[in-house]
Amino acid sequence: MEYLVIFCRKIRLCVMGKQLEQISPELQSFIEKQKIFFVATAACDGLINLSPKGMDSIRVLSPNRVIWLNVTGSGNETAAHLLQNDRMTIMFCAFEGKPLILRLYGKGKTYHPYDLEWNEYIIHFPLMKGARQIFDVNIDMVQTSCGMAVPFMDYNREREELNRWADNKGDEGIVRYWKEKNTVSLDGLTTGIFRQNADL
Q1: Contacts of 170 (CB under 8 A, 6+ apart)
Q2: Could you tell me if 49 and 86 are in contact, meaning their C-beta atoms sit under 8 angstroms apart?
Q3: What is the pLDDT of residues 186-196, one digit of tens each?
Q4: Which DSSP string do the residues of 4-46 spell out, in sequence order?
Q5: pLDDT digits (tens, 9 = 90+) for 114-169
Q6: Strand 65-71, strand 18-20: pairing
Q7: Smallest Cα–Cα separation from 15: which of 101, 110, 141, 123?
Q8: What pTM, to 2 d.p., does this model score?
Q9: Which stretches of the chain are DSSP H helices?
């Protein structure tokens, strides 16, 4: 009976979750250990985007601010969405240890290699050929919730295919790829990957 009471209390706390005003030191430590996180954005209309991110690409700058580095991919939805709607949700899941889902709700802005802020923030990340944006997110709310339905999963290693692809492309090849694949979103919205009025 005592075990059942304890179990029910844990379930009740898990279901309720917590809403916090900032990232605590414990949660920052959790974030820094994660190998993958998920980012959701949406423009005013059209498709909602949800993407997994890895490659040691997120940093906590303060209890209410994170930055993350975006590398070249087949789409460029996040950048396009933020030009219309700056809301962003970042989610982490515990795949080992005690269960936890952590969501960061905030407003983001984009820095490209042509922006002055780029050089200030790129130093926080390992060198990655093909890096195309840094997203700067001011956190409005932090929410923890139950992760008891998230399975245990073992981390093996990072994939190297994207880095090899970028190395093979070279700087000029990556820029050509941006022109072909990354200038507009799935809904036809501009992504801002090139400076406005620049010669494409």
Answers
A1: none
A2: no
A3: 999 999 999 97
A4: HHHHHHHHHHHHH-EEESS--HHHHHHHHH-S-EEEEEE-SSS
A5: 999 999 999 999 999 999 999 999 999 999 999 999 999 999 999 999 999 999 99
A6: unpaired
A7: 101
A8: 0.90
A9: 2-16, 25-33, 77-84, 116-121, 161-181
